[in-house]
Structure formats: C-alpha cells, structure tokens
C-alpha cells in the first residue's frame, strides 16, 4: 500500500480555498449591487448520467423513464468553458451512477489534463481492481462512496443490489492500495430509520479503513424528474398550492400521506437517533474523521424530531449564487429541489448565469421555504463559511 503523502493535497486545498473565498467575496459584492456578471459560482457538480444499476427506494433516479448523458466530445467544450470562467475549481461527478457513463474515465482524464479538480460520488458497484486502479491513477480530488450500513444484508436489500456491500469493501481496499495522497476517500451515509442505530459504527468503520465519513438525512425529493425533455425537471404540479407546513405533512408519520420515496426510511426511532447523534458528536470532538460539523449533526437530530424547524430558520439561501448543477441533458439548476433555469445546448454558461431566468431563480432560492438540510448555502459569516469549507472539502 502506498503511503499517501499529504503535502500536495494540502497545497491544492489551500489554493482551492483561496480561490473559493475570492469567488465568495465577489458573489457578496455582486449580490449587493445586483451585478451577477461580476461573480461566478463556487461549486459545480453534475449528474453525469441519469442511469443507475441500483434501485434504492429512497432515491428518485431509478424511476426515470428517459435517460440522457453527454459524450466526452460534448463535455470537452463545457469543461473548457468552465475552466476559463472559474479558474481553479472542482467539479463533482454524480448521477445516477457516474461510473456507468461509457466515457467516465476519459472525462476524468480530460479534467486531469486540463488542471480541473474532479470529485466522484459512486455507489461503489463498479470498483473492481482494474477500475479502482484506473480511477486512482487519475488522482481525483475525492472519491465518495455511499454506504448505509455495516450489515451487508441490510445495505444490499435497501440498495436493491445483491453483493453491493462486498463490492464497496473490496473497492475501498483497492482504492486505498492504489491512491496517492492527492485523493481523499469518503463514505457517504444517508441517515434513515433502518440504519439510525448504526451511525457510530459506520464512523468506526470509516476510521478503520482510512476514510472520512459524511452523514446526510433522508430527504423528501419533491421534483418531477421524468427527464423527457431538456426542461423536464419541474416542481411537483401541486407544489405552489401547498404551504410549507402542508409540504412537511408528507413527512408526518401518517402512512396515508407519507411520500413514497421517504416512507419507511423516515426516522421514527428518535431514542436511537438521539443516542447516535450524541455518540457522533463525542467521536467528532475526539478527532474521528467525521465531515459534518457538530451544528450540522445536531440539525439532523432536530430535523427528524420536527422537520418544521427548518422552515423557521431565516436562511436567505445563497445556493443560486454559489452552486451550479449540470444535469445529464445539459439543463442547469443550483439545487436539486429547484427547477432548471437554462440549458447548455441552447446558450453558454455565462449567458445562462446572467439571464433573466437566472435572476428569477436567485430570487426564488433566496425566498425558498422547502425542507432542506443544505446548510452550506444558507446565509453565514465568512468565518463560518471558511470553517465549513475546511471541514467538508
Ligand atoms: C443520488 S446519489 C448519486 C451517486 C451514486 N449513485 C451514489 O449512490 O452514491 C448521491 C447521494 O444521494 C443520496 N440520496 C439518494 N436519495 C436520497 C434522499 N432521498 N435523501 C437524501 N440523500 C439521498 C445517496 O445515498 C448518495 O449518497
Ligand atoms: S445508487 Fe445512487 S443514484 Fe442509484 S438509485 Fe441509489 S442513490 Fe440513487
Ligand atoms: S433552501 Fe436553498 S438549497 Fe435548500 S431547497 Fe431551498 S433553494 Fe435549495
């Protein structure tokens, strides 16, 4: 096993951090003076493909009827344009399952050649030794693997993929063996009813395997994602008619109203939740490699106790200034709970960023009242932002 040397990653992280803070400052000035053309997003991610080989029943992706993905040749000008516009930046490749894209490695190779930092979030099913070796050689900035249980049968059942746990464990070992110090490995765990008592054990497993771990609560995804046309990422048809409380009613314990993609996963065992969060906070303070801040862990706890509490936070969300998501059909949005506001097949990134639709989108996000745990984009001081950045990236 190679010994990962950290100085290179630390240098890259420091440069990336400086670029991030510069862009963040530009955004605040541009926002105050209403001049979006003076600023750029700080984070970019893309659903490389909407296809997936898993059938996780808490995720909207497997239900899509029509699928899209752009080829390497289509990605090249987009990545070049992003680089010319943003300078040093990181693009996170997700999906669907990003490793199913037929040119996944070639796209990462292109990023490397162009000096673009690439991150990957994967279900881990395709991390064979050959693939892990190839991936590690491309030195992505981070590889995140979704793991929801330390019990193989529970993980496999809920992800609807037999053998997935074993593949993840093998893949982790291969990646650890072949990766350089420039790549950070991360486990991503979605907090649900059936794994809520295992969270401290998952943190232990991460530590034992030389990875960090990040926890996210299961969320109700309200978008209609039929993927049929470039504009086809819309809010659920009755969304506007419902008050925030009515939207949360879907998260009540009433089996008649609970949304299908949250249903059995919503945490009802609040005693187990409290014990797990207390244990994670203790571990975090004792130096375990947990990405969430203590505030974030405690917010996960409050969210399941009373999802309504998020509605009452004065969050004035900045996601539309900070985040850009590129969908596999070229559509752009800034939050996975908001509709799209442009398409790369119809206009350039900068045109989309400064368009009237983007302005409207920024207003909508600032006023957003959805149940959302995306605390990174809520109004914060530069000090809070910097510490969140440092812990999470
Ligand atoms: C949509 S997946 C895409 C990448 C890849 N297929 C994977 O599973 O890692 C990205 C992350 O979103 C999480 N996720 C899926 N549905 C969710 C939901 N309803 N609430 C919260 N997280 C969810 C997954 O567990 C995964 O960690
Ligand atoms: S593997 Fe990822 S994209 Fe696929 S269904 Fe599961 S969470 Fe969704
Ligand atoms: S608060 Fe922001 S990040 Fe959360 S759902 Fe609304 S727009 Fe999206």
Structure description:
The chain contains 14 helices and eleven strands. The longest helix is centred in the first third of the chain and has 28 residues, at 6-33. It is 41% helix and 13% strand. It is α/β, with parallel strands linked by helices and 393 residues long. The protein starts with 5 loop residues before the first helix and ends with a helix. The chain has helices spanning 6-33, 72-86, 104-114, 129-137, 152-159, 164-178, 199-208, 244-249, 270-285, 294-305, 319-322, 349-353, 356-366, 382-392, and strands spanning 43-49, 90-95, 117-122, 142-146, 184-191, 212-217, 223-225, 233-235, 323-326, 331-333, 342-343. The strands form two sheets. Strands 6-5-4-3-2-1-9-10-11 form a nine-stranded mixed sheet. It has a two-stranded antiparallel ribbon with strand order 7-8. Residues 247-260 have low confidence and may be disordered. Strand 2, helix 3 and strand 3 form a beta-alpha-beta unit. Residues 52, 58-59, 61, 94-95, 97, 121-123, 146, 188, 190, 216, 218-219, 221, 261 line the site of S-adenosylmethionine. S-adenosylmethionine binds next to strand 2, strand 3 and strand 5.
């Amino acid at each position: 096993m190679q010994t990962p040397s950290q100085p290179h990653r630390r240098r890259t992280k420091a440069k990336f951090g400086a670029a991030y803070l510069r862009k963040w400052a530009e955004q605040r000035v541009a926002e105050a003076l209403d001049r979006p053309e003076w600023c750029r997003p700080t984070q970019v991610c893309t659903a490389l493909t909407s296809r997936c080989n898993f059938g996780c029943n808490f995720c909207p992706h497997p239900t899509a009827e029509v699928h899209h993905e752009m080829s390497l040749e289509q990605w090249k000008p987009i990545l070049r344009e992003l680089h010319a516009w943003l300078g040093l930046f990181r693009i996170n490749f997700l999906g669907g399952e990003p490793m199913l894209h037929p040119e996944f490695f070639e796209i990462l190779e292109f990023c490397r050649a162009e000096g673009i930092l690439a991150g990957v979030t994967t279900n881990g099913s395709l991390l064979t030794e050959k693939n892990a070796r190839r991936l590690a050689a491309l030195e992505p900035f981070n590889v995140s693997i979704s793991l929801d249980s330390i019990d193989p049968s529970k993980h496999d059942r809920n992800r609807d993929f037999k053998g997935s746990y074993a593949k993840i464990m093998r893949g982790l070992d291969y990646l650890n063996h072949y990766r350089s110090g420039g790549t950070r490995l991360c486990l991503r765990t979605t907090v649900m009813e059936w794994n809520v008592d295992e969270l401290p054990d998952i943190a232990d497993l991460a530590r034992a395997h030389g990875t960090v771990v990040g926890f996210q609560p299961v969320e109700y995804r309200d978008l209609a994602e039929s993927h049929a046309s470039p504009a086809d990422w819309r809010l659920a048809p009755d969304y506007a008619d419902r008050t925030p409380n009515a939207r949360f009613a879907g998260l009540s314990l009433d089996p008649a109203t609970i949304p299908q993609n949250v249903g059995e996963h919503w945490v009802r065992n609040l005693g187990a939740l409290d014990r797990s969060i207390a244990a994670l906070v203790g571990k975090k303070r004792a130096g375990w490699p947990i990405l969430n801040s203590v505030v974030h862990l405690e917010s996960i706890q409050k969210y399941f106790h009373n999802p309504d509490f998020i509605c009452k936070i004065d969050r004035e969300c900045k996601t539309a200034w900070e985040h850009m998501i590129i969908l596999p059909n070229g559509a752009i949005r800034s939050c996975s709970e908001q509709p799209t506001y442009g398409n790369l097949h119809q206009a350039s990134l900068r045109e989309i960023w400064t368009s009237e639709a983007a302005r409207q989108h920024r207003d909508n996000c600032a006023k957003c009242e959805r149940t959302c745990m995306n605390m990174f984009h809520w109004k914060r001081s530069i000090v809070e932002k910097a510490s969140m950045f440092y812990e999470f990236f």
